[in-house]
Write a structure and sequence with these properties.
The complex is a heterodimer. Chain A is of the alpha/beta class. Chain A is built from eleven helices and ten strands. In chain A, 36% of the residues lie in helices and 26% in strands. In chain A, the strands form two sheets. Chain A has a six-stranded mixed sheet, with helices on both faces. By secondary structure, chain B is mostly helical. Chain B contains eight helices and no strands. Classes of the chains: A alpha/beta, B mainly alpha. Chains A and B meet through helix 9 of A and helix 3 of B.
């Protein structure tokens, strides 16, 4: 069974159709990159998987999105429970104005977990997984806002990991970072793949090539091509994909 | 036109210049062989330096494009193909130089009858034609022309295989011409290698345009579109 599955999905913002009949299957423990020009619908499509678009009044969706075979838009689904399973990392690091420690356990606090031993364990484990532990272990009570941009982004990833999701959605997670921090986030994605299913939206073609197993190219709301990343970057089947990745778009 | 497009166009133009030079070396080599024109043979040897300089330049250009532009898809295949074609052209240049050296070393004209019996001239012309056609295929991005080369290579192989017996027989009957007969056999061997280089180049052209790998495939498979 595929971890994530979209079937004939259409999305409308008011009268505008922004996703057009998209179907895609994403296997467990893989990294999938969504690429495409601005406004092609890739971020909208990514946000369907944790129902982030629900907050937009004029949003309407048709079709079916499944996680582990279950329809996540079913009326029985509790969105809070869904988001424990599906974490999200955004373009701009968005730590809360709290300590590093409090940032990591924020999700657990909301869940009502108070046992300090459990919380301490989760903080260490999550920060280690996010490759940040060594840099912050002696200053867990310091403000998260004092960290560098790259550290803040890895903290946000640690915060996502703390609630033990199975899927991580990333919307341009390294685009606001310097090359070294960006490389660290990429390394992290590579390491996390063994335990999580990751979907990443990126404008950086080389990054998509480096981190992902499969790449999906979106254009004007359509999924033009989804194939192994090696195939997309060496021999794409569709001319529009080739024109986009070689920079000859338009 | 994008910056990368301009770089790729320049790379193509430089490759064509090198190719034209190598083909000219082969042509001059043939003329020098037929007329035992040692001056022309020396010209071939001298032009080898220019071919080598082109080889280094194309290597460097490809390296720069990889490093600075991170080409993908058809652009990546094009630069990879040029990198290998560059190598094939340089070797073809070496072969032309080798033939020219034989022409300089040989004492008297190659016997016309022997040239006819071995089909060496026909082979030389076929080899030159193969290199011209691959150049045309590369310039026009035409894989149909590139595929014609595979068939012609069979002719070169056939002439090469039969040359042993023909030359052995000739030597038995003309022991005074052993040296020139052996030089001619060496030239035939070298021409067979030109055919191989042209075939490799044709494979690279098809790889970059159609994204198909034809190396180590049978001729029937190679000719399938």
């Amino acid at each position: 069974m595929n971890k994530l599955e979209a079937r004939n999905v259409n999305v409308f913002y008011g009268p505008n159709q922004v996703i057009k009949d998209v179907s895609i299957s994403i296997k467990k423990n893989t990294v999938t990159a969504f690429i495409g020009p601005s406004g092609c619908g890739k971020s909208t499509f990514l946000r369907l998987f944790n129902r982030m678009n629900d907050y937009i009044d004029i949003f309407k969706m048709e079709g079916r999105i499944e996680i582990d075979g279950s329809d996540i838009y079913d009326k029985q689904i509790r969105v809070e429970e869904l988001r424990k399973q599906i974490g999200m990392v955004f373009q701009k690091p968005n730590p809360f104005p709290k300590t590093i420690y409090e940032n990591v356990i924020y999700g657990l606090r909301i869940q009502g977990i108070k046992d300090k031993k459990i919380l301490d364990e989760v903080v260490e484990k999550s920060l280690k997984q996010a490759a940040l532990w060594e840099e912050v272990k002696d200053k867990l009570k310091n403000s998260a806002l004092a960290l560098s941009g790259g550290q803040q982004q890895r903290l946000c990833i640690a915060r996502t990991l703390a609630v033990a999701p199975t899927v991580i959605l990333m919307d341009e997670p390294a685009s606001a970072l310097d090359p070294i921090s960006s490389a660290k986030v990429e390394e992290l994605i590579y390491e996390l793949k063994s335990q999580y299913t990751i979907v990443i939206v990126t404008h950086n073609m080389q990054q998509a090539g480096r981190v992902s197993d499969t790449t999906a190219f979106f254009y004007m709301g359509e999924l033009v091509e989804h194939d192994s990343t090696k195939m997309i970057f060496t021999n794409p089947k569709n001319e529009r994909t080739q024109n986009y990745i070689t920079g000859r778009f338009g | 036109m994008s910056h990368l497009d301009i770089e790729l166009q320049q790379l193509k133009a430089e490759t064509i210049k090198m190719w034209t030079l190598v083909n000219l070396q082969l042509n001059k080599g043939k003329e020098s062989l037929l007329n035992l024109d040692k001056d022309l043979a020396r010209e071939v040897i001298l032009s080898e330096r220019r071919v080598n300089a082109y080889e280094l330049k194309l290597d460097r250009d490809c390296e720069n494009i990889f490093a600075l532009f991170n080409p993908v898809a058809v652009d990546l295949r094009f630069v990879l193909a040029v990198l290998k074609i560059n190598n094939n052209l340089e070797r073809t240049g070496d072969i032309a130089e080798g033939i020219a050296k034989f022409v300089i070393n040989v004492d008297h004209n190659f016997d016309k009858q022997l040239l006819e019996l071995t089909r060496a001239v026909e082979m030389y012309e076929a080899a030159i034609n193969m290199m011209n056609e691959t150049l045309q295929a590369f310039d026009q991005e035409n894989t149909a022309i590139a595929r014609k080369v595979f068939q012609q290579d069979e002719l070169l192989d056939d002439i090469n295989i039969k040359a042993n017996a023909v030359i052995a027989d000739y030597i038995r009957n003309h022991p005074e011409c052993i040296e020139s007969a052996l030089y001619l056999l060496s030239i035939i061997r070298k021409l067979e290698r030109v055919g191989d280089q042209a075939k490799n180049v044709a494979e690279e052209i098809i790889f970059y345009i159609e994204a198909k790998v034809l190396k180590h495939r049978s001729i029937v498979e190679k000719n399938k579109k």
